[in-house]
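Submission sheet (multi-component)
Chains listed below:
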Amino acid sequence: MEEITHTNRPVIKCESVYKIFGENAKRLLEESNGVVDAKKFLDAGCAVGVNNASIEVYRGEMLVVMGLSGSGKSTLLRCISRLTDTTSGNIFIDGDDLLAMSSKKLIELRRNKMGMVFQSFALLPHKTVLENIAFPLQVKGQSTADSMKRAVDMVELVGLTGRENYFPRQLSGGQQQRVGIARSLAVEPDIWFLDEPFSALDPLIRKEMQDEFMRLQGVLNKTILFVTHDFSEALRLADRIAIMKDGIIEQLDTPANIVLNPATEYVRKFTEEVPREKVLKIKSVMDPVDDSLELSDLKVSKDAIIESVAEAVLSEQKSVGVVDDNDVLIGTVHASKVIHLLFGGHERNA
Amino acid sequence: MEYLKKNIQLSQFLGLLAVFFVLYFTISHSEHNVFWRLPALFAPLPAAINGAVEFLMFEWLPIEIYDAELDEYEESALLKEITRGFSGAVLFCIQFIRELLLGGVKTIVAFTSWDFIRANKWLVWPALPWTVVAGGAIILGYALRGKGLALLVGFSTAYIAIFGQWVPAMETLSFVLIAAPISVLLGLVFGVLAFKSKKVETVLMPLLNVAQTMPHFSYLVPVTVLFGVGDHAGAIATIIFATPPMIRLTLLGLKKVPPEVIEAGLMSGCTPRQSMYRVMIPTARRDMLIGINQVIMQCLAMAVIASFIGAKGLGFNLLLALNQLRIGQALELGICIVLIAVVLDKLSLAWADKQTDYFADLEFAQRHKYSLLFLGLFVVATLLAFIGSILFRDGINYFYLIPHNQGITTENFWQAGVDWMVDNWYQGLQGFNKGLIVNVLVPMKNAYLGMPVSATFLLVMGIGYIIGGIRSALIVGAFLLFIALTEWWDRALITAYMTSFAVIASVIIGVSVGSVCAQYSLATKTALLVCDTFQTFPSFIYLIPVIMLFGVTDTSVLIAVIVYATIPATRYTIEGLRNVPETLREAGAMSGVNAWQRWTRIELPLAFPHMMLGINQTVIFALFMVIIGAMIGTEDLGQFILKALSDKNGTGNGLMLGLCVAFIGLAVDHLINTWANQRKAQLGLT
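Outcome: structure written.
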C-alpha cells in the first residue's frame, strides 16, 4: 500500500464543511448537532449540498473531487472558493481563515492566489481571446501594455497563437476552454480550481485537453482542486480522489487504493468496470523486497502503469525487481500477481 | 360531446358565452339599470387630480426665491422651482446642441444677457456648415463600421439636405441627442437597481407595465403642467416614454447573464463595482442594445407627438403637412425621420461592437487619422462656405446652410399621384370604404355599444377565471371596474371595437403571411428584414399613405392600425414556427404527414404559445395606433385625450383616459401572458 507523506502544511484545509440551501439552514443544522439527514432536511424545505466534508490539499498536489450530478462536488468547490457562503465548518487557505476574511482581503486572495476554470467556459462574450485572458490582470489594475504582454505569453502557452483577436463565439469548445485555462493562469495563482473543465467537450477533444492539462501541470506544478463526474478522468489525473455522494465524501484516497479497496458499495460500483492494469502502477501490486528470492535481470520502474510492462513481466520466470527513480530496489513483483490482476476477474476486494 | 367532456376549458368557455348572450339580450338598456351601465363614480376624480397637481405646483411648501431682475425675494412653490430648474437645464442642453448645428445666440445669452447681445451685434455663434456635419457623420460611420455604414449615412444626410429639410432635421436631432442618452442612462440605472434589489423590482414592474401601455398623448398634459411648453417639455415627455423599455431590457439582460460568467469575474478578483460594470453589463449587452434601439425609435416616434407641446423640428412640420393634407411633403418629412432613426440606430450598434487593436504600433498620423480627416474636412468645408458666401452673394449659400423648404421637392409629383388616384380610383375606394363602414364597422360598433356592463364583466372575468383561476379573474375585473366607473365607458367600448377589428385582421394577415414565409428560409429572412425595417418607422408615418388613399375616415385609421399591428403578429409567427425543433419535423415526416398536416398538427400547436405573445404585442400596438388615429378623427378615447391636450385643466382627464387605455391593454396582456406561460410550461418550452 502506498502512503503519501506530506511534511508541509496543507494549502487548502476544510474541516467539517456543511453547505445547506434553504431559509432555516443554519438553525436546522445547529439543532441536528452535526448529524445531517438529507431527507429530514428536505422535508423542512432545505437541500443538503455538502455534508460534513473534511479535506486537505497539499502543495503541488492534485485532488480530484469525483461525483455524479447533485453529489455536491461543485458546491464544495464553491465553498472553498467562497463563491457561496458555507453554512458551517472551517476552511483555511495557506493557514488563513477563508470564512472570516473581509471582502477586501478575499478579493486580494482571488486576485493573486486563485484561478478557476469553469465547465461552460464562462468567457466574457464581448471580449476577444486576448482581452479575456488579460481581464484578471486588468481588474487588478495592471496597465494595458503589461497585461497584454502577459496575455500573449499565455496564448502561446495554451497553443492559441494566431487567434488572439477572435471572439469566444468564433472558437470551438476546446479552444474556448483553452482561453478559460489561460485566463485562470494569467495571474500565476498558487491554487487552481477546475470545475468540470472538460465535461462539455467531445471525447476526442477531452482526451487531448487532458493530455495538455497534464503537460501544463508538469511545468507549473500548481496546487489543484479538480471537480469531475468522470471516474476515468479522475483516475488519469489525480494524486488523490475524493468520491462524493449526496454531499458526503464516501472515500478519499489515492486512485490505486480506491480501485483496490473501495470503501463503500457505492465506490465499488465505479471501480467495477475499471480495467485495473490501465490504472494501477507497479508499485501498487509489488511485494516487499525478500532477499531469499532470486530475481530476474529485468527491472521495472515503480511508476510504470501495469499494462505497459505486463508483457515483459509475464515472459519472466522469476520475480522482477521494482526500482524507484534512483534505480534503488524497493520491491519485487511476480508474473502470477500480474496474471491475477489481469485475468483474476473483478471479484470483490481484489 | 365526448370532445367537450375531455376539454373542460372549452366547455367552460362555451357555457360562459351562452350566459353572456342571455344577459346581452335580456338586460334592459336603461340609464338607471346598474346591470346596463355602472354609475360614473369616478367622474369627480379628474378635477381632484387637477386640484392636487395645482396645489403641489403652486402652493405646496413655499420657499423664498431671489429674483435677480426685480432684486427682491419672492415666494414660490418648491416643486415649481424644482421642475423649472430641471426644464431649464434640459432646454439649455438642447439649445446648446442645436446652436452648435444651426448657429444662434441663446447659449451665449445664457452666460451673458440679452442686453449684452443687443449691444454686440457681431456676437452670434455661427452654424456648422451642413457639409461639416454630413461629412463628420460619414467619417464616424466609416470609422465605426466601414464603407457600408458610411454610404448609408452619406445617402441620408444628402437626402435631408437636398430636400431642404436640414434645419428641422437638426432641430429634431438636437432634441433626440439629449433625450436618447438620458433615457438610456436612466434605464440603465433603474435596471441595475431593480436587478440588485427585489424590492425595487416589485415596485417598478407595475409602474413600467402602466407606463408602457399608456398612450403617448396622455403624458403630454401632465408634462405641460409640470414643465411648461417647448422643446424641453417634448424631450421630457420623450424620456418618460422611452425609459421603461430600456429599464426592462436592462433587467432582462442582467438576469440572463450566466451565473458562471459572474463567478468567473469574481474569481478574477472583481470588486462588486467591477463585477457590475466590467462583467455583467457588458455581458448583458445584446439585450441592452435592443433597449437602445427601442429608445431611439421611441424618441423619433415622439418627435411628432412631442410637437403637440411645442417641440420644433421635423415632427412639427410633419404634423402641419398632415393637417393641410399636403401628402407629398408629409411623405418627404416622414422619410427624413425614418432615415435619422435608421442612421442613429446603426451608428449606436456599430459603436457598441467596436474593437480595439492593442498591438498596432502606429504613428501619430495613423492613430488619429479620423480626427485629422475631420479637421481637414472642417477647414475645407468652412472655406467652401466662405467661398459660397461670395458666390451666392444674393441668394442662399448652399455651402453653408440650406434653409427650410429651399431644396428640391417631389411634392408636386406625389400630389399629382394622389390626384390621379382620387380621379381614377375614387369610386372603387369609396365603394369599398362605404361597404366596409356600413356592413362591418357600424354593426360591429353597435354590437359593442349594446353590451350591458354586467355581461362584459361576466365575459372578461369568466375568461380570466378559465385561464388563470380566481386571481386572474379579480385582476382583469379590477382593470375593467376602473374603466366602468369613469364616464367614458362607451368611448372605451368604441376603442375596444376598433382595436378588436384591427387585431382580428392583423392576426389573420400576420399568421398567414408568417406561416407561408416560415416554410422557406429565404422568405423567412426577407420577412424578418421587412419587419425590422417597418419597426423603425415611427407609428405616425403609417398614417400618410392611407390618408392618401382613403382620405380622413375610420377606414384610414383602421388600415394604418392593421398595417402597424401586423408586424408583431408576423414576426412572432415566423419565430415560433422556425423554433419548432427540426427533429419533430423529421419525426413527422417519418410518420408520413403532408405539408398541411405538418403545419396543423406539429408546428402550430408548438408555436402557438410564442405566437400568442406576438398577438399580445399586436393588441398593444393596435391600441396605441387607434389612439394616435384620433389625430385624423375617431370618436373613441383617443379623441378625448386629444381634447384634454388643448384643455388647460386637462391633466386629470388626460391621466384618467390614459389609464383607461392602459388598463384595456393590461387586461389583455395579463390574460394572454398567463395563458401562454401555462401552455409553454405544459409543452416544456421555456
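Remark: The longest strand of chain A covers residues 47-57.
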